[in-house]
From TrEMBL:
Keywords: Membrane, Transmembrane, Transmembrane helix
Record-given protein name: Tripartite tricarboxylate transporter TctB family protein
Coiled-coil annotated residue ranges, if any: none
Pfam families cross-referenced by the UniProt entry: TctB
Domain DUF1468: residue ranges: 14-155
Keyword Membrane appears in the UniProt entry: yes
Transmembrane spans: 12-30, 108-124, 131-154
Amino acid sequence: MNTRKKVPVGERTFCVLLLIFSITVLYQAYMIAGFSSVSSPGAFPLGISVVLLLSSIRVLFELRGKDTHGEGWLASAKRFSHEHFPRHIVVFTLLAVAYLAAIQWASFYASTFVFLMLSIVYLRRGKVLSALFASSLSVLAIYLLFTLAFSVYLP
């Protein structure tokens, strides 16, 4: 009777990336103030990164002898991306990154309008008129709220 569970696709890779991340955070935390004292500025990040490092080593130790799905690397990568990165999440993330980049060179209101418009059109599968109405109403509400209520002028 085999009671061992198979390791989900990408779990080992995630643990290795977590280990690399924890070592990087540990190094950065050490660069803040070293091991000077418990109340130094780098003490908290240093403690958190040590806990993260030990946790990721423990998880890798647990996964060491478990079975995988017996797939090749390419098939595992495709399955992992299909399971963990659905298309609508990837598209919306790219829209959000483009929005953050557009704020720098376009005005806040114009980039917010375009971001909302494209997001609503994509997520509602092409309903342009409702997206135009919702985006316009949202940007108008943001403008009125910040300009009139808070007296903050956004660029």
